[in-house]
Amino acid sequence: MPVEWDDKSHVFHLYNNRISYLMEVVHGKYLAHLYWGKRVQVLQPGAILSFRSRAFSPTTEPSDPKFSLDTLPQEYPAFGNGDFRSPAYQLRPADGSTMTEFVYNSHEIYQGKRPLNGLPHAYVEEKSEADSLVITMVDSKIGVGLNLHYTIYRDIDVITRSVSFEHLGGQEVEIHKCMSMSIDFHHANWDFLHLQGTWARERHIERQPLIHGIQSISSARGASSHLHNPFVALLSKNADEDIGEVYGVSLVYSGNFAASVEVDPFETARLSIGINPFDFIWLLKPGETFQTPEALMVYSNEGLGGMSRTFHQLLRKRVCRGVYRDKIRPILINNWEATYFNFNENKLKEIVGSAKELGIELFVLDDGWFGHRDNAKSSLGDWEVNKKKLPHGLKGLAEYVQKKGMKFGLWVEPEMVSPDSDLYRKHPDWCLHVPGRNRTESRNQLVLDLSREDVCAWIIETFTEVFTSAPISYVKWDMNRNMTGVGSAALPSERQKETAHRYMLGLYRILEVLTGRFPDILFESCSGGGGRFDPGMLYYMPQTWTSDDTDAVERLKIQYGTSLVYPAITMGAHVSDVPNHQVGRVTPIMMRCHVAMAANLGFELNINKLSSDEKKIVMAQIGQYHKIKELVCFGDMYRLVSPFAGMDTAWMFVDQNKEKAAVFYYKILASPNSPIIRLKLRGLNPRKRYRMNAGKQEFFGDELMQIGLTIPFIKKDFTSQLILLEGCQAP
Ligand code: DGJ
């Protein structure tokens, strides 16, 4: 069994062929963390922990003075019993204290993985794919049970963790903090890596050495956010793309989160991730259960590249769902940057016509089709088509698109309301707000209160109608502001601090119903680009609009950083106009195509503005995309050269059989008399011969990986090359 309990040593061992995770019940009560990493066999599991007496570290076991929770590597630590480090959870029982004493009570080992009630999570299709463990700790004084949920996958090097608090009776308890996972590493000689950014500059990589004290990232914006992604990693000092140890942790949640690492004086490191405890309190009444979001924990001893490929496999196969999970997505054109709000049926038909000629497969009508929305100032909430712009309605336009041989897609922003809307005039209490306080607007809009059942029901029914009103194959689900005045008119005062999390539960419920009712619609989530690019949203919608920044140069960093966790098939990437609307840069159409082709290819420009030469390039690149799309969407990704390091970027995709590969190389600014670039490829079969670009040149896999592929010099800024490799027989 890949989850073992040793009755003598009181050690749990979760393992597959490559990784191990070990815990021990110490003194029959406390759950200690022993090890997580490369697979080990343990002869004397009980001998892993060693204790030293430390001044000022109190003990809860007077008969064992060396023992202290302050120095014990723990699985789910509390505060108040001697551990002065940052706790994983904190409850406030009815006596007003924040002290609890949870002790080991029982455990259950089972095959498979159970779903998390109401929350997105990694899943199994067959029980044999994973094994799970639930460890129950109980604080009998307050009558609360704490269940630690673990799953280990057999073929994916992932451990998932979450926690549920179960009120078994007695008085009410408040949950003030409840991280989804916490781990104490035995040393702190790691680098801390995370993805930071802002609107139009999402998921840039930042890496720094750990220092004493707490380093943390978080969001208190009501969304996982553009600023920090719910992901952190600890890296050994030598770790790069290919070598070294990496521990990556990602949270399956789209709301406020926090992740932190604390280094103590004895050089241990405590890593945790979960709901942001700031501004959060959950009231747990007798008989109720609170379930935390799930953390995905990946160990790699093949550097960041190995970590990413594991996350990619898990997210692609066991987090994303629905018919599009295993399908190539259609090449789309979106009218947003071509028209913004200023369109009518004829203008859209022109875009459709020219897109079809180039081989584009889906037309997406973006913002501005409803109410009297001619700018961002009104109408969110009034989801009736604007007949002045679209006299034949959505149906008429969608049918026109279909007749042209393309699919039709629609933009919506269901979670929002404009103060200038009939919906707001009718239901001013339906938005998040604190009664008697200012309602802070952002992009002239307010956030609907999804913690309310009635609001959720209204969204479900309204968008069921919208999605059935026309033949819609694709929906872009947008969300263009963060939360302020977080309060709900429907919740009692003692539950106000639950609003932000209840909002997420409401959103997930809505998405479960709508994606279930419309299984054939391809949903893409969006939040001003990538403001909610997280595994939680991917559970419902298998792709996300990566960023509102479509500049080819900026996109290199955004897509490279995003790929640390998220596979290319989850990223929307569009070829847009020049000068670029976000940075004013002019890049050639070839580079714009090559950047967007490394994800789900789309277009977002007035195609009629392209010259005939540019149109030829677009058509040729769409042809190329058809050749490589399986590789990009389902292959293994290897990052070769980082855009964060200089003027070059390169990455490649290889199929599972190592028969085919697509290599992308990009040069931002050319430099004079520059060195010869030999790109060392990865992931190929060393003994296989590969033919380059269906031409005469052939190379062995080891030649390409050890000596490298010489990249021809081009005397120009903003150049790119796509190199196709195909396995071939020796002549
Ligand atoms: C923000 C999105 O990221 C854009 O692509 C576009 O859909 C606008 N919203 C429309 O308001």
Task: Please specify the SSE layout and strand pairing.
Blueprint: E1 3-6, E2 11-15, E3 19-26, E4 30-38, E5 89-92, E6 103-111, E7 130-139, E8 144-153, E9 158-167, E10 173-185, E11 190-196, E12 204-209, E13 213-219, E14 228-236, E15 246-252, E16 257-263, E17 269-275, E18 282-284, E19 289-291, E20 294-300, H1 303-318, E21 332-334, H2 336-339, H3 345-358, E22 362-365, H4 393-403, E23 407-412, E24 416-417, H5 422-426, E25 446-447, H6 453-468, E26 474-477, H7 499-517, E27 522-525, H8 535-540, E28 543-545, H9 552-562, E29 571-576, H10 589-596, E30 600-604, H11 612-634, E31 636-641, E32 648-654, E33 660-667, E34 677-679, E35 689-692, E36 698-700, H12 701-707, E37 709-711, E38 719-728
Helix pairs in contact: 6-7, 9-10, 10-11
The chain binds (2R,3S,4R,5S)-2-(hydroxymethyl)piperidine-3,4,5-triol.
(2R,3S,4R,5S)-2-(hydroxymethyl)piperidine-3,4,5-triol (DGJ) binds at residues 336, 366-367, 411, 478, 480, 526, 528-529, 545, 548.
